[in-house]
Specification:
74% helix, 506 residues, mainly alpha
Length: 506
């Protein structure tokens, strides 16, 4: 009897597991199948936008919807209340008939009526997020107040509001394009106010043009940096930018510190051989980065990092430390963290640079401290990989192999680098059978996978060199010297230092 109850309990648990799995698959299917979207709200614009709101925003939305000034439809409130009461919003909880029965409990389902209601809800939600943005941009609120008072001929009140706006701008420490635009718009409102109040008075326009010039120059330089960076990555000719030469000439002679910073940043991207621009931009950035907003700080910082890595890739090893120190500086100053996320590419670059510099303790602490900042769907792979790489650089090859042989990474570049680590391990441990097998499978992997031509050649060169290292006779000094020369002159190639070290041991 006891065995029967054990069997029955096992069967019940098994059935529950199967039901749960079927339900999960069902939910996934409903969320993905376009043909089923007419029955479910999960893929609607309304639900997608609603899911972007955080808790404080949801509380404000609740107040917004209950204001007759913004919403006159009680059904809109009921629908949003229904969404707010759900523990989880998925395809099942947003089934149209289910939602309809909550909003219209005594009516038969009418799809068109629900679609109209969803349209009202989306309109309210769009108005709400527009309000949130306007609320966060205090300058524009004050500007519209000045403009409205002026149009109502409330000149004294408008002047007082304009003075308040001027004081707020003076307290703002930014010196970027946004600040220049605000100053320009303040001067425009001042010009309009004076002209409306007394048409015989000619307002001073010098400051208006000065701020407009700064806004234009900074904006032009900022996006010129973006354009030339993109052309470097894609290897396409950069497109023509009208007035850029005039802007560069103006910037070269400008005393504005942020204009100078962007000018030197642009020139450093354009001509990596002229290290003077990079050095100037580095010093200027450290001095005036508080005058920029976070996104601008991040852009300039990545420009300096990319310059350092580009120089490192040409064989100037001192730039490894420079790139690493910039990354550390970006972490300390919380510039590399955006929306509570650290780019997985920055994460792996930081770890790799630190390991090359033998900063093993720092890298171990970094992995532990910053792994939670990687986007959830990538976190496991990148933490797994960087931990394996840490063991690799510490010569703990057994632990490295245990980690690397456990998974096939989703990111092709992690796979490529993981296979390269295994090549080095097998070579150093003289596991020649495993090494030969990996060389064959690695070559096939490169043929099978869609890899950018440059990267494919990097790994083809590594495979070719290691094959030659296996074939060369240790006592043949001439062949060893020839192989060493080939490594030194092969481009592109990764792990050049390691390859040269192994050749020196032959």
């Amino acid at each position: 009897m006891a065995d029967f109850f054990k069997w029955l309990l096992f069967l019940i648990l098994k059935v529950e597991l199967i039901i749960r799995k079927i339900k999960d698959n069902y939910v996934h299917l409903l969320g993905k199948n376009v043909h089923l979207n007419r029955y479910f709200m999960i893929n609607s614009k309304l639900i997608k936008l609603y899911l972007t709101l955080d808790k404080p925003e949801l509380r404000k939305l609740n107040l917004w919807l209950r204001s007759p000034l913004h919403n006159q439809h009680k059904e809109v409130v009921l629908l949003f209340d229904y969404l707010g009461e759900r523990r989880k919003i998925n395809a099942v909880s947003t089934q149209k008939k289910r939602v309809y029965s909550k909003v219209y409990p005594n009516e038969e389902y009418q799809e068109n009526k629900l679609n109209v209601l969803m349209s009202y809800c989306l309109k309210n939600l769009l108005a709400f997020i527009g309000f949130l943005k306007a609320e966060s941009e205090g300058f524009y609120y004050e500007k519209f107040v000045v403009n409205s008072l002026s149009s109502r001929k409330m000149f004294k009140m408008a002047e007082k509001s304009l003075d308040n706006l001027g004081r707020e701008l003076q307290e703002n420490q930014l010196m970027n394009a946004q600040k220049a635009m605000w100053e320009f718009q303040k001067e425009v409102e001042k010009h309009l106010l004076v002209s409306t109040k007394n048409r015989t008075v000619q307002p001073e326009l010098t400051l208006l043009f000065e701020q407009l010039n700064i806004f234009y120059v900074l904006s032009m330089l900022k996006y010129a940096c973006v354009a030339v960076s993109q052309s470097n990555i894609s290897k396409k000719e950069s497109f023509s930018i009208e007035m850029l030469n005039e802007v560069l000439h103006f910037s070269h002679n400008s005393k504005h510190p942020v204009v100078q910073l962007y000018y030197n940043s642009y020139k450093s991207i354009l001509d990596a051989e002229e290290a003077d621009y990079y050095e100037k931009a580095s010093c200027q950035f450290l001095d005036i980065h508080p005058k920029l907003d976070k996104s601008e700080q991040r852009d300039i910082l990545l420009t300096l990092i990319n310059y350092s890595i580009k120089k490192l890739n040409t064989g100037i090893s001192e730039f490894r430390r420079k790139a690493f120190d910039w990354y550390k500086w970006g972490l300390v100053n919380e510039i590399l963290i955006k929306d509570n996320y650290l780019s997985r590419f920055s994460f792996i670059n930081i770890a790799s640079l630190g390991l090359k510099l033998k900063e093993f303790g720092w890298v171990a602490s970094f992995i532990d401290a910053y792994s939670d900042f990687i986007e959830g769907k990538h976190r496991s792979n990148y933490v797994h990989y960087t931990t394996a790489k840490l063991f690799f650089y510490q010569k703990e090859y057994k632990k490295t192999q245990q980690l690397l042989l456990q998974v096939e990474y989703e990111d092709i570049f992690l796979n490529l680098d993981a296979k390269t680590m295994l090549l080095e391990i097998y070579y150093e441990e003289k596991s020649y059978d495993a090494l030969e097998a990996l060389l064959v499978s690695f070559s096939r992997y490169l043929q099978r996978k869609s890899v950018i031509a440059y990267h494919k050649q990097v790994y083809k060169n590594i495979i070719q060199i290691i094959r030659k290292m296996l074939d060369v006779a240790p006592y043949d000094k001439e062949a060893v010297a020839k192989l060493k020369s080939q490594i030194e002159n092969t481009y592109p190639i990764a792990e050049k230092e390691w390859l040269l070290q192994q050749v020196d041991k032959l």
